[in-house]
Amino acid sequence: MKDTQPLTDTDIERAAVDALAWAAGVPEGRIRVSVCNGHVVLRGSVDWPVQKEAAASACRGVAGVRGITDDLVVEPATTAEDVRTKIEAAFRRIADIDSRRLTVSVHGHTVTLTGSVRSWAERQAAEQAALAAPGIAMVEDRLAIVP
To answer: Domains in the chain, start-ordered, CATH in brackets?
Structure first.
């Protein structure tokens, strides 16, 4: 039987860095990795919430990882006005959303939706479209359902 040595934190850190380099959707060179007792800490910034998820997911598959702390920050690559414009354009493209009844405001990583929608489905579509905008981590829904 072969005697196997447990992985060191240095081994795990190297493997996690390699996993991030190979992971689709993870921005190159913007995430720092540290490991203590098998616990991985991710620090840095990404443009999209999905990139945070991809980074954590890539590290979960690394041998020896006991846990992950995701200290990544979503930093939009665009201005609040650009994000608002993109969300409003998305609303106009989605047939289920009457964009004339909605107001969009952007503060940091949060979008606030106000106004009215005709149904729960329209409300969900509006929330999903807003959350898909670059750099948005949270949607504050202040929409009223008015058929």
So the answer is: 9-74 (3.30.1340.30), 80-145 (3.30.1340.30)
